[in-house]
Specification:
Length: about 80
């Protein structure tokens, strides 16, 4: 078995370390949420949607729910 020496100063700078088996690391990496970058019309549409939501939030037109069952559907 090999010994690895890690300076306490490095651990403190990095706020800790994690040791995982390679298989576990690969499994976690595969299940990670992908990052998407939008551009063009899709990005503009999303920006507008977020802006509208923030305006409604600031105007008090939103409500806090704990689950989708809390929604009132009005037809």
């Amino acid at each position: 078995m090999s010994t690895i020496t890690i300076q306490k100063r490095k651990i403190n700078q990095q706020k800790g370390i994690v040791v995982l088996p390679i298989k576990e690391y690969e499994r976690l990496k595969e299940r990670a949420v992908p990052t998407y970058y939008l551009s063009g019309k899709a990005a503009r549409d999303l920006d507008k949607l977020v802006d509208e939501g923030l305006k409604e939030y600031k105007a008090g037109k939103t409500k806090k729910i704990h689950s989708l069952a809390d929604l009132d559907y009005e037809n």
